[in-house]
Amino acid sequence: MSLDAFRAEVRAFVATHLPDDIREKVQRYRDIDKADYVRWQKILDEKGWFLGNWPIEWGGAGWEPAQQLAFLQEAGLAGAPMIIPYGVSMVGPVLHRFGTEQQKQRHLPGIISSDVWWCQGYSEPGAGSDLASLKTTAVREGDDFIVNGSKMWTTEAHWADWMHCLVRTDTGARKQDGISFLLIDMTTPGIEIRPIVTIDGQHHTNQVFLDTVRVPADNLVGGEGKGWTIAKFLLGHERLSIADTGPKLRLLNRLRAMNGAVQADAMLDRSLKGRLAAKLTDISVRIATLQALESYFVQAWAKGRPPGADASMLKIRGTEILQDLSELALELQGPYAAAHDPHDLHRPIEDKDSAAQMASAMAHQYLYGRCWSIFGGTNEIQRNIIAKTVLPGP
Amino acid sequence: MPLDFRRSDEHRMLADSLARFAAEFNSFESRTRRLNAGLPDRLGLWRPLAELGLFAALVSEEQGGFGGTPEDMAVMQDGLAASLPVEPFLASPVICGRLLAAARSALLEDVITGGAIPILAHGEGFDPFAKARLTATAQSGHYRLDGLKPAVRHGDVATHFLVSADIDAAQRLFLVSAQAPGLTRKTIRLIDAAGAADVHFENVIVPAMAALSIEVCDAAIEDALEWGLTGLAVETASLIAAINAATFEYLGMRKQFGSRLADFQALQHKAADMAIGAEEAAAMAHLAVARLSEPATAERSAAILRASLACDSAGRFAAHTAIQLFGGMGVSDELIVSHYGRRLAAIRSQIGSMDARAARLCSLEGNG
User: Fold this and answer.
1) Which end of chain A is more exposed for a tag (fewer CB within 10 A), N or C?
2) In Å, how far is B127's CA from the nearest CA of chain A?
3) Chain B nearest-CA residue for A344
4) Structural domains in chain A plus CATH codes
5) Range(s) of the domain holding residue B147
């Protein structure tokens, strides 16, 4: 099947199979709750697309990178929620690559059915950009590890049944070598979740405290000291989704509609209209460039181009464009540009949106947009990676 | 240059008492508590500041106050900015104070005591300088108002509105009680946690004397808006100074990869640009305040708009960079830095949008 035909198939499938209430929530920038994600992931699984990027020998669809990208773009543009990566894109591949037979049998079915929900315990209060300095310890005691410490910015920990966690099992070794990859049942005694409200007034993320948490040693993946290797393996898995062009194109469409109303308003000043039109044109060039870059990289990877810092480039540009898009969205709201009520994101979908509530959704994009250049490896760290790749060494 | 608008001992005393007041009544914790409560807590600073004599300091002597110069307003804006009050100090005693003074309205006395909170309901779209579309119809012995004033900042807590309206293609201002029959408000929450309201007028009947007697209404409104824009420029410059101080302290404290963040050259350069922005904003804010003492001319308007745009540009950079440099902590609701960013986003649309301000400057400069 040609890529264009596949794109058309994805569009048609999303149009017919994405539940209307979920599409409405996505299109109107409402909060998507866990049950919505689960419902959509199960629908994708039934179609055989949930495991699109898993190889055929893992029971996946074995999509080529270009096909994976086509799916992500089309589904995102058509208003489908994202696939939550912690299980299917992170723990699943890690278990296939590094896990024991017993670990695979225990955890893969729940990941595939979306019945077991995962979160990612990496960052800590003192270890964000400098992840290797993480301090949460796991000390072997008989058949168990005793885990103590705290994890920070643990997104959706309050939804999770399990956490995949980087812990320090050897405090004497080189920082990276003392880190291990541990699977922790979130119902284990000693775990406490403290919600962190972010700049947008919402609760997405958490601090997770681990106080003498007893974890069976069988939950160690890849052996002691393999945590850093596994974390690096996972980074390579993010490169296809990192530019996230589908939702950006969807937001651009919304901005075009907003700008259309502005341009049609006979009472508005000609030079004001000109400024807004020019800003929209500029950002559409930048999005087109991001799309071209992403597609160029995907084709080149298929021909064996080493990934190098490509993903870092996509992340920097993608996050900057999203931030600028959201700023322009506010400007286009005119008198409502400052409207923002965190409750608007949770109102019933049956309610019609007022002008202020539509603006509120855009303000949420603006505010939460500040997170994107920080979470998942700050743009400063991404620039370090690029510089290291292109500059001569010492 | 540090921001400093003090020109007299009275200014120095006012600045000192505002600093003490902000520390005592509007700490980050008590602000958070108040904003999560309803009225009257959301207006908790209003009475104490009225009792302190702040509002009298914003009104001229001939109108019953003891101040009313641009520097008085700037000292107030600078003194309060960093503690992020959401009370309408600029919108009511300053902006409406000037309009009520021009109209010799008796309501000014209640503004000085803090008893009345009039709010200007003027803008109806992107451009705050555009003429009102809301209509006033003269009927026997009274007027009828019909129309919508969208997202009027502080419209939720207003006791009165100064409503601009079109009457036979001329613009007039009407003083209307917030309780007037036919006036309805739909409350909106804003990005900086202040409130606003869509204010609907449907067959609102006001007596003839509600039409304020102002000689040239368009000019009075423009003048009041320029006082507002200048106040916002001062507030922005003050916020940038606060953002920079907090960020530079954090860079010196937080360690990564065995070094202080302040030791990384890439971050040093960001800090350097933030420092330049703070100086630029301060210079432009001072300039705007100085200009405001002069009679209103197109040149004064252009200078104030330039200050507004320059301060926004520096403020945008400072807020976004500060949040980035704080990392995860920067996007947490628990630190003040994210709230500084939210306040600056609100300022961007407080008196028309930034693009509308730029478009007006474009035409004043004759650029097209």
Assistant:
1) C
2) 8
3) B189
4) 3-83 (no CATH), 119-225 (2.40.110.10), 242-390 (1.20.140.10)
5) 120-210
